Amino acid sequence: MQIPAPDAHQCVIGVAIALPSHYAAQVRAVREAAGDPLAEIVPPHITLLPPTAVDVDSLDEVMRHLRNVATGTQPFDVHLDEVGTFLPVSPVVYLGLRSGAKECDRLQARVRDRRGPLARSLSFPFHPHVTLAHEVADEGLDVAARQGAGLVMDFTVTKLHLYRHLTRSGCDEYPGSGGWEVVAAFAFGGSLASGAVDVSVEGTASVAPATPTTPVVSV
Q: What is the pTM (predicted TM-score) of this model?
């Protein structure tokens, strides 16, 4: 995962579908077994917008945009049980979607709408997935593939989540590994859910942000 270097007036954000906490714990266990140093730092998720640097002053506009996207989206089901890899392009093992991929694709396209504040191109074609291991040795990738083969996840997506990267100074070995916090959760228009999603973000609590951050809210 590439974390862009923001300037003094920017922060790094991402937009994703957070996994329910019991599934997040399973993914985290696989990443730990694979020796992935980001296992406790990156909350398990399905990426809709990869890490992106934005002006801090634009965050209100970003949140309005995401609220509008969520309002026009109906809840949908996802089923994950397919282990795959991005080798040889990237040393990643992931859990893929058997169903729900088309809905995720439409959602990420709306998040990155060229008329909105999060318009940007992607380095690779969009491929919804949950990472099980990232940039570890071949042995670790094999462990992730074996353990991931036993994972089956079914849940209804009712929200999208805005994350903000927390900068941790003095971390040269894994630059950009300061963790993430949920800034806001935007409920879909047809969702009956209320309040914050049951999502685990372990690994971020002990990381002090470099600048004041927005409290967690649900909208």
A: 0.84
